[in-house]
Q: What sequence folds into this?
């Protein structure tokens, strides 16, 4: 397996009146061809910004200021916006959380997919419309030819998300980035969408990055999980290792505070005290140290991701305290 | 037997709307239909279900924030359903609500102290002189320092704001609090903190909660009893332990199997519920779930299933379920 995407030392800053505030602080991530990677973290941990920076979709005032992001041999962070436009859609597809704000409300959904096909694949309009209907059928929309003529508001939330997925797939990308695509959906519809993306990933042989805050959801989806906290990767391992041997104190805390349907029902859940730091108010050293029960003097310096001894070779954690315990 | 705090019978809510460019068509949203249940003193009763199932409408109707279209809510021997604002006022103190998004319910121009003082002074629960001590006590109850009284909502994190919203509900020394998706907007690590806080306060003040949520895993951990709703009707109501161990209604089963488990080895295929929830503008006849139900038979299409107790304290509305382990027909 070769790495399709390799992010090294990525930093992202928000421009503020009183100087830049760092939101992503040296992220290292890699993704193999055909792999499905889960990026897990709480609001503001930088999980979405990291992925948006790859395709030049960062909001105003937020900029990637360092590091590189190699995608199929090219550094995405160094590409011109003109070249990036060719990458977006045809090589890297995106699905966002809220289809109502991503779809054009005054354009029929079929035409929106046609627009993408004409632009990315240089298709003629009639052929593109036939392909759009095929795509709608592929994502499980009943009566696709008819629905292609619908406006977004005429569709339910689940159907709109399917349209978004069809658009994300229109350019036949090698990498699909799904940014919390099911957060706004009900649980039975979420299950349908999750099954759909999983089927499509195998069928179309794509790599998928799932961005989510939901550890339970990602357990059934990803091959590998990267846990983010305050703009850094704190743990990175195959999915079974994360759930069997969570090693970073933050990962452990997250898993312990996760209520489940199986196991003993306990009224009080173990919780992590405090809240994540705001951008610009990051503590020096390990960002999790102020909330960590195991913090010691070594946590004053920024920890680096290092292999976990005695575990899977791909298991890496950024915590000198637990690493010392294990050696 | 524990005491009943609120006895709800046949509670219904219809919203009459006008549709069409000139409002020429009258349409009715059947948001809540024939909700019957008792809420017991000191318990946490949870309501779960998908968007539009009527769980929040139930909470709003109980507190007369929506005026119910029918049915009764007996509290302290009096039917409070549909009381006007003046008649409702004495009950407002006892019956409180915490919403999902504290940012939109706290006045951005009021300090936390001012926001908390308002209900105390309105209900004359403390004099001006006693107020600072009372505020400090309330803030301590929700795990905040007295210094927070001088802060504004925008200076607080989401978890802290939700603590303030809880303190504001507590300010009136209520007996009953509706928690309407009170933890849904919070991050996992903060969610557990707020849940534990709610449970501590329940122990300390003997509170009764109606906990409205869509996260079944959370509900399993904190509830005494759980009601499952679908398209404005109760489908099943049982002690939490029974409901999660032995769900009887086919919708409850489908809902439970759709919940992702944090276990990579858990079966990745599950009982997938096809289709989507029908529109409450035009709900299906008979059992409202029959359009998606794997057990649906002819009677389900025409007859509304009765709300029956099929096992001790376990109620179900389904033609197919007759007892704990019996069904009217074979599961396909």
A:
């Amino acid at each position: 397996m070769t790495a399709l995407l390799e992010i090294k030392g990525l930093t992202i800053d928000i421009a503020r009146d009183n100087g830049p505030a760092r939101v992503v602080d040296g992220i290292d991530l890699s993704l193999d061809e055909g792999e499905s990677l889960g990026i897990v973290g709480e609001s503001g941990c930088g999980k979405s910004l990291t992925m948006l920076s790859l395709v030049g979709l960062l909001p105003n005032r937020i900029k990637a200021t360092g590091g590189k992001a190699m995608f199929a041999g090219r550094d995405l962070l160094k590409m011109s916006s003109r070249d990036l436009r060719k990458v977006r859609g045809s090589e890297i597809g995106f699905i966002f959380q809220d289809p109502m704000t991503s779809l054009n409300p005054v354009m029929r959904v079929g035409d929106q997919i046609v627009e993408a096909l004409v632009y990315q694949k240089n298709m003629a309009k009639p052929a593109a419309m036939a392909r759009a209907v095929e795509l709608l059928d592929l994502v499980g929309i009943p009566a696709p030819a008819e629905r292609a003529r619908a406006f977004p508001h005429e569709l339910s939330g689940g159907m709109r998300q399917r349209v978004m997925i069809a658009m994300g797939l229109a350019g036949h990308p090698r990498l699909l980035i799904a940014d919390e695509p099911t957060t706004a959906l009900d649980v039975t519809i979420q299950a349908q969408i999750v099954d759909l993306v999983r089927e499509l990933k195998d069928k179309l042989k794509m790599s998928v990055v799932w961005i989510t805050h939901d550890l339970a959801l990602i357990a059934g989806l990803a091959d590998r999980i990267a846990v983010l906290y305050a703009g850094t990767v704190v743990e990175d391992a195959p999915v079974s290792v994360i759930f069997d041997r969570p090693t970073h104190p933050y990962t452990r805390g997250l898993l312990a505070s996760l209520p489940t349907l199986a196991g003993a029902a306990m009224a009080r859940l173990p919780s992590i005290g405090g809240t994540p730091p705001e951008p610009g108010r990051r503590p020096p050293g390990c960002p999790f140290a102020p909330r960590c029960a195991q913090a010691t003097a070594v946590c004053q310096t920024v920890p680096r991701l290092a292999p976990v001894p005695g575990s899977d070779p791909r298991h890496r954690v950024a915590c000198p305290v637990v690493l010392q315990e294990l050696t | 037997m524990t005491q009943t705090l609120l006895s709800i019978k046949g509670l219904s809510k219809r919203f009459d709307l006008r549709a069409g460019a000139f409002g020429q068509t009258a349409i009715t949203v059947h948001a809540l239909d024939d909700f019957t249940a008792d809420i017991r003193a000191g318990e946490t009763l949870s309501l779960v279900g998908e968007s539009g199932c009527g769980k929040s409408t139930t909470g709003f109707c109980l507190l007369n924030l929506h005026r119910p279209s029918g049915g009764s809510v007996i509290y302290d021997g009096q039917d409070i359903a549909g009381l006007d604002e003046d008649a409702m006022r004495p009950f407002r103190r006892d019956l409180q609500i915490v919403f999902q998004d504290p940012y939109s319910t706290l006045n951005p121009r009021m300090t936390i102290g001012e926001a908390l003082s308002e209900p105390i002074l309105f209900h004359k629960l403390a004099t001006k002189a006693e107020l600072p001590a009372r505020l400090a006590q309330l803030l301590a109850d929700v795990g905040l320092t007295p210094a927070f009284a001088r802060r504004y909502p925008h200076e607080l994190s989401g978890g802290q704001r939700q603590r303030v919203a809880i303190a504001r509900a507590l300010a009136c020394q209520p007996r009953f609090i509706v928690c309407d998706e009170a933890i849904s907007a919070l991050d996992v690590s903060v969610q557990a903190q707020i849940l534990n806080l709610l449970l501590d306060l329940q122990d300390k003040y003997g509170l009764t909660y109606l906990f409205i949520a869509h996260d079944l895993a959370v509900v399993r951990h904190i509830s005494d009893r759980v009601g499952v709703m679908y398209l404005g009707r109760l489908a099943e109501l049982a002690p939490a332990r029974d409901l999660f161990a032995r769900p009887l209604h086919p919708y409850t089963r489908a809902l439970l199997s759709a919940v992702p488990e944090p276990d990579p080895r858990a079966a990745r295929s599950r009982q997938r519920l096809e289709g989507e929830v029908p529109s409450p503008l035009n709900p299906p006849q008979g059992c409202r779930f029959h359009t998606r139900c794997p057990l649906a038979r002819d009677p389900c299409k025409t007859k509304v299933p009765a709300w029956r107790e099929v096992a001790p304290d376990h109620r179900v509305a389904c033609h197919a379920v007759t007892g704990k382990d019996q069904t009217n027909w074979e599961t396909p």
